[in-house]
Structure formats: C-alpha cells, structure tokens
Design brief:
Length: 259
C-alpha cells in the first residue's frame, strides 16, 4: 500500500453476511483513501454497503479480507476489544441515532467525558474539557447533569459530535448523522460539524443518502452500488460529469426529487 501520508488506506475490503444461499456480500473489494483534513462523502441507495464500510473502518464490523491502515497502523481483520480501544484515539464515529448512542443512565457530562477517561485522563481534567465542549456546541452548563431523554434530538446529536471530536481523533466517521433530524435542525448540525472538523483539521468519512448534503460537506465522493465502489473522484467532477451509469441514475433521481 502506498501514500503513507493518508489517514486512512483501505485496499480490497470485503464483508459478507450470512452463509450458503443466504450469503450476502455487503462490501466487495473496496479501495479507499482519505488524506489529513479531507472530507470524503459516501453515497448510495439503501443496501449499497456504505454503512457497513463505515463500521469496518471504525472496527465495529469485522471484514473477511482486505488491508486497512489508520495513520499507517494496520487494523486486524477481526477487531478485538483491546484493538478497538487502541484505535479509539485515531478514529471515532457519529451515529444516526443520537439517543441509542448515549447511555440513558449516564448524565450528558459523563457520556461526553467517557472517551477521555478511557484514554487515562483524570476525572477533573476530563470534566473541565467536557464543560468546555458543552459551551463549544452551544449547550448550557445545566445540560451537564441532564440525561439523554431530557434533550432534543438536535441537542443529543450535538453531544454525539462533541463526544467523537473530544479526543481529537485523526478520522471521524459520520453515518447518516443528520438524517433523523428536522430540516431546520439539520442545517445547524451540519454547520457545527463542518466548523469543528475544519478547526481541528480532522479527516472525515461522511456517509449519507442525501446527495445535496454530501456535495455541501465533501471534498471527494465515493459512490457505492451493490457493495462495490463504482466511482471515486473530486465531488464537483462526480456531480457534474459522472462516469458510471449508476451515478448518473442516482443524480437523475435526486434532481427529480428536488423539482
């Protein structure tokens, strides 16, 4: 594998669900690379493999084959809990469901500072950083002692974003991070996400079915179809001069829905 300056290098990733006749290839021989500070969008219809690809990269899903390097360090085929912790300072994830991603029995401050404590920081230092991040994501100090069900969906997603970025990872994977939110709230969350990403110069893999959002957020975009990466290029070139028939169809459907 080349381009050692990449935050992420993936070659030949493959993931299969089920066995025998029920076997389904979710990710099929996918290559991907992400540079420091770059945002790579991933688009495709439901079942295209885009979310599975994100979970493989974060270590939440094992793969059958393929090479995966994070900041030059190889990630094993089947991620153990120890390896997952080892890479937690390198790659983090923002989930679609902000409620299920937070422990309902833990306060917002406890959930926010958990990644710092896992890295060995003292509780006092972690809480100081956690409160600073609450201010950074425009939540009042009163939110520190509240529980997830006491916040709105948009507020919970702000916490999810802060929780991912608080350890200053090199890569953040966002899987449909705004799709469950109202349109008016989506714009606010996307602006916050982009601001933090640019301020920290964090690479990001931005997975979404919303082509307009991906174009707004991304530098390059990968198009997934039936588990394969069928196109990968500068976002403007993909949107204005798509090379693959599936990409052209996807963009056509997007244009029709926008009318």
């Amino acid at each position: 594998m080349t381009n050692t300056g990449s935050v992420l290098q993936a070659r030949g990733l493959r993931c299969v669900f089920g066995r025998g006749r029920d076997q389904q290839v979710a990710v099929d021989n996918v290559d991907l690379d992400i540079l420091p500070g770059e945002v790579v969008g991933v688009v495709g219809e439901s079942g295209s493999g885009k979310s599975t690809l994100g979970r493989i990269i974060t270590g939440l899903q094992s793969r059958e084959q393929g090479e995966l390097l994070l900041c030059g360090q190889p990630r094993k085929l089947h991620a153990s809990s120890a390896e997952f912790r080892r890479f937690s300072g390198v790659v983090q994830m923002v989930f679609q469901d902000s409620y299920s991603s937070l422990n309902p029995r833990r306060t917002i401050l406890d959930s926010l500072t958990e990644p710092l404590l896992l890295q060995g920081q003292s509780k006092q230092t972690a809480f100081q950083q956690g409160r600073a991040w609450l201010d950074r994501i425009s939540l009042s100090s009163a939110a520190a002692g509240r529980y997830p069900h006491e916040l709105s969906g948009g507020q919970r997603q702000r916490v999810g974003i802060a929780r991912a970025f608080i350890v200053e990872p090199k890569l953040v994977v966002c899987d449909e991070a705004v799709s469950a939110l109202d349109v008016s709230v989506q714009a606010q969350i996307l602006a916050l996400l982009k601001d933090i990403q640019q301020t920290q110069n964090t690479a990001m893999l931005f997975i979404s079915h919303d082509l307009a959002v991906v174009r707004h957020m991304s530098d390059r975009v990968a198009v997934m179809y039936k588990g394969r990466r069928v196109e990968f290029d500068d976002v403007t070139r993909v949107y204005e001069s798509p090379q693959h028939e599936y990409t052209r169809r996807l963009l056509s459907l997007h244009m029709e829905a926008s009318l």
